[in-house]
Structures are given as structure tokens and as C-alpha cells.
Write a structure and sequence with these properties.
This protein is an alpha/beta fold. Among the domains are: 96 residues, Urease, subunit C, domain 1, CATH 2.30.40.10; 116 residues, Roll (Diaminopimelate Epimerase, Chain A, domain 1), CATH 3.10.310.70. It has 19 helices and 22 strands. Helix 1 crosses helix 6. It starts with a strand and ends with a strand.
Length: 508
């Protein structure tokens, strides 16, 4: 169906425009005079009433089922104490909802200075199985009833009598929880995530699945849902070392994403070159070595797949860069660059490693809200790393200046869906030298995401022949809104994915 959107402000590299013509899934024309488009009189007309039209956002790092469970389940992101967390668990247990799944707690600002113990959690849970993932998803509070249902967990790395499990112990329990979800629960969660993304002008979600963070069944279900129901596109990844064949079988574009080279800063499992400021005997954990990374990346390159790794600490980032360089030497630099391999998070990186990523054409998939929520000289990073290393984290400006392509994402449910919030976080980074301008940040959350998915070069732009995936905004500004630190952000009025409206404010 031909649809003419007119009377707005269209953000396009073709220049100033007020209208665009959509033919099925593609943009056919962009300009200022709708009559010049040559559309037949039968074309549908949508009056934009002066609204801003931009390419829809791409969220380059999503965990759809986890995010949906956080949206529909026990949301712990606002609890401000261990006591409040326990009260929330007790209320849910009293309601008798089966296994209690919650997410989002962060003990760093609590008056107790610690999460609840397993004994405290057991009393609140009254015998229920409880899984409460920390905000970074790299550790979780687990009740005795759930732990007892996972044989051998007490012998795994990361097990703690306190009930806060990390590393292999956490992965084992998480897999058990995910296996216990019914198809209906999973579908409801995935629908909730896609619905919320559409409401926020997000037209594409990169689902970073894997054996330690979800399951093959979970990824297959999401792919099937996205093909059957309108909503944001889903770009699937399968994060498993040696998982190229599985990625092909699942229809994933890469054996990439959360292939863990280390853990997280919040759980003190990110691999650092010097110990944590608040845990002097601990420098985190390295999960992979350069040779393993090189083999996996070479296998993916030869199979026509993207490779990619989760790396947060400076040691983990250098390990991934070293492995990438070895793989590039094996397959040849042109083939390596053409594969558009990825690195997720990249929170601590030196100038030499950034330059090497640029040389190799590796895309840095980063999360600006990490800095907004935990950066600066008094946040969680300062507690974990000390002020100097905290202020060196999430260096978006340095990466951009080094020539490293950026793709923005949320890592939802680690941070909430919210692309304009991410743009603001990058524009107003805690460290002035690491700030980037609105246009660069917007590109990282649109064309950068398409680039990271291996899409054609015109994807993420409103130009003839590009996918008709865009959002309509109530927002002043020309050509893009002026994003202030504390001011209102644009409000989404309509989201269109490949020509189909997937969200619309009533009356628009």
C-alpha cells in the first residue's frame, strides 16, 4: 500500500524535507512537494501535523524474555534497602505465584550496605523458590528451595553460602529457572518487551541469546513471535564459543553477543589489571583466552557469521582485541573487516586497544546509560574502581575519535529501554571529554545498530530504497531535538516498521 506522510519535518541525509512516500516496506520518495512524488490519488495520506520524523531507533543489546519478566514480574529496581526487597518477596510469596522471579536490585546505596542473606530470603519466601537477578544480571539471590532443585550447584565456581551466586553457579540456576518457564509465560514476556520498545520508537532489537543467559528454545520462540506478529524487528544472535553451527541452525546472524570474556563491575567479576577498590584481593575473572577467541572468530568469519564477545574490564578487552588481531591475520584483514565483528560493553579500554579495534573494523556495542546510572566520582563505579578508573569508564568520545564504529543499546533489563535517554547519557557523559554531540549519538542508535547487524548501508536512513522503519515524534528542534541534561525528551507518536504501523498514540 502506498502511504504519503506529509506536513512534518523529516530527518534525512537527502536534505530538508516535509514528506515521505512509503510503498509497502520501502521508502520510495522524500522531499518537500508531495505532488512531485507521483503518487496516485488512491495513496493513503497521513498528516504529520508538524511532527518530527526520524529513522526508528535500534537497540543493539537486548534480552527480551528477561526484560519482559522484569516488566511483568517482580521489579526490584526501585527497592532502597534489603528490608524492602524482603518485604516485596514476602508479599509475592503470600500471593502464591509459584517460582518468584525478580530483577533489578542494587545494594550499593542501601543502608545495610549488603544484599539479604539466603537465610533472610528463605524466611521471606516461606518455602518458595526465588530467583532475584542483580541489576547487572551477573549474580543473583537464590533461595534454598531453588538451590536444592539444581543438583551440584554448591560445587560450582561462584557458589556462596550467602545465597548470592555468580559465575558458573549462577548460570546453572538461571538455566533451571528458564527451563521452568511455560511457553505462555515466555511469550507474554517477549510480547511485553516488543510492545514497550515500539512505544519508545524502537524499530529493531538485537536479541543476544546464549546458553548461559537464555536458551535455544527461548531464541527460537522469539524469532517465531517476531515473524508472526507486528512489532520491532528481531536480529538474533547466539552467544556460544564454538557455536557457529548452532547459530546457523537457529537462523542467527552471529555466534556473538554475550560470549563472556569476563563478568561485570557490579558483581566484581569483570577482569581488571588491578584489584577492585572495595575488594582489594579480587581482580575479577577471565573466562576466555586469546587463542580461544581467535579460533571462534576465525570459524565465524569463514562461516559468514559475526563473532562478538562481552568484555568489560581492561584485561578482558585486551584479551578480546588480541584474539581478534590473531583471527584477522589468519583470515586476512579484508575478510575480517567485512564480517563486522562486535565487542559488547568495552567499559575500560586504553588508546592502543581502541586504535586496534578501529583498524580491525570491530563495532563497539555500548550502553550509555551505564555511565548515567553508575559513572562519575560518586557512583557505583567509583565504589568498585576508585574515582580515577570510574572517570575513565565508558569512553564514548575516545572510541569515536579513534574511529571505532559505535552501536548503542540498553542491555535491557540491566538498564531500561529508552533510546532518547541513552542519547542524552552520551551527550551528557559524566566526563566532558567523553561526550559526543546529538547527531553522533543519534547515529549510533540508528545507523550504528544497522551496521552492527550487517545490514545494507542505507538502512537506518530515510532515503529512497531504504527500509520504511521510522518514528514520529512530538519534539521541537531542527534537524534533531536539543537534548538538555534535565529537560523533557521527545515523545513517540507513531512507530512504523517496514511500512507497518506497530504503535500509534490514539488520535494521531
Amino acid at each position: 500500500m502506498l502511504t504519503m506522510y506529509q506536513g512534518g519535518r523529516v530527518y534525512s541525509p537527502a536534505g530538508p524535507a516535509t514528506a515521505l512516500l512509503v510503498d509497502d516496506e520501502l521508502v520510495r520518495w522524500v522531499g518537500t512537494d508531495p505532488a512531485a512524488a507521483g503518487a496516485p490519488a488512491t495513496a493513503r495520506v497521513v498528516d504529520l501535523a508538524g511532527a518530527l520524523v526520524t529513522p526508528a531507533f535500534v537497540d543493539a543489546h537486548v534480552h527480551a524474555t528477561s526484560a519482559g519478566l522484569a516488566l511483568t514480574g517482580l521489579d526490584l529496581s526501585t527497592v532502597d534497602s534489603a528490608a524492602a526487597l524482603l518485604a516485596a518477596v514476602a508479599a509475592r510469596a503470600k500471593a502464591g505465584t509459584g517460582t518468584i522471579v525478580g530483577h533489578g536490585w542494587d545494594e550499593t546505596g542501601w543502608p545495610e550496605g549488603r544484599p539479604p542473606t539466603r537465610a533472610e530470603l528463605d524466611r521471606a519466601a516461606a518455602g518458595a523458590r526465588v530467583y532475584l537477578s542483580r541489576v547487572d544480571i551477573h549474580s543473583a539471590l537464590v533461595s534454598s528451595a531453588l538451590q536444592d532443585a539444581v543438583p551440584g550447584v554448591a560445587g560450582l565456581a561462584g557458589y556462596a553460602e550467602s545465597g548470592q551466586l555468580s559465575r558458573d553457579a549462577h548460570h546453572a540456576v538461571r538455566r533451571a529457572v528458564w527451563a521452568g518457564l511455560t511457553p505462555g509465560q515466555r511469550q507474554d514476556a517477549q510480547r511485553a518487551t516488543r510492545r514497550r520498545a515500539a512505544e519508545l520508537g524502537v524499530g529493531s532489537l538485537h536479541e543476544l541469546a546464549g546458553p548461559d543467559i537464555s536458551s535455544a528454545d527461548d531464541l527460537s520462540a522469539l524469532i517465531e513471535l517476531a515473524s508472526a506478529e507486528p512489532g520491532p524487528d528481531v536480529v538474533p544472535y547466539w552467544g556460544e564459543v564454538g557455536g557457529a553451527a548452532q547459530a546457523h541452525e537457529l537462523g542467527a546472524v552471529g555466534a556473538a553477543g554475550d560470549v563472556f570474556a569476563d563478568g561485570s563491575l557490579g558483581s566484581r567479576t569483570a577482569c581488571l589489571s588491578s584489584p577492585y577498590a572495595d575488594d582489594p584481593g579480587n581482580s575479577g575473572h577471565a573466562y576466555l583466552d586469546p587463542a580461544t577467541i581467535a579460533r571462534h572468530t576465525e570459524e565465524c568469519t569463514r562461516a559468514g557469521l559475526q563473532a562478538g564477545f562481552h568484555a568489560i574490564g581492561d584485561v578482558a578487552v585486551r584479551t578480546v582485541v588480541e584474539g581478534f588481531a590473531a583471527a584477522a591475520e589468519a583470515v586476512g584483514l579484508p575478510a575480517f573487516r567485512a564480517a563486522r565483528h562486535r565487542i559488547e560493553h568495552v567499559e575500560l579500554i586504553d588508546a592502543a586497544a581502541a586504535a586496534e579495534l578501529a583498524r580491525l573494523g570491530v563495532i563497539a556495542s555500548v550502553q550509555p546509560l551505564f555511565d548515567a546510572l553508575w559513572g562519575g566520582d560518586a557512583g557505583m563505579y567509583a565504589q568498585r574502581l576508585g574515582v580515577a578508573r570510574s572517570l575513565a569508564s565508558n569512553p564514548f568520545g575516545s572510541l569515536a575519535r579513534a574511529g571505532v564504529p559505535l552501536a548503542f543499546g540498553s542491555d535491557v533489563p540491566v538498564t531500561p529501554l529508552g533510546a532518547w535517554e541513552a542519547v542524552r547519557a552520551a551527550v551528557w557523559h559524566h566526563v566532558e571529554a567523553e561526550r559526543i554531540d546529538v547527531g553522533t549519538a543519534f547515529a549510533a542508535h540508528t545507523t550504528g545498530g544497522w551496521l552492527a547487524a550487517g545490514a545494507p548501508d542505507n538502512a537506518g536512513t530515510l532515503t529512497p530504497g531504504a527500509p520504511a522503519t521510522f518514528a514520529v515524534w512530538d519534539a521541537p528542534g531542527d534537524p534533531l531535538p536539543d537534548i538538555t541534561l534535565d529537560g523533557p525528551l521527545p515523545r513517540c507518536l507513531r512507530t512504523v516498521v517496514r511500512g507497518a504501523t506497530v504503535y500509534e498514540v490514539e488520535g494521531q
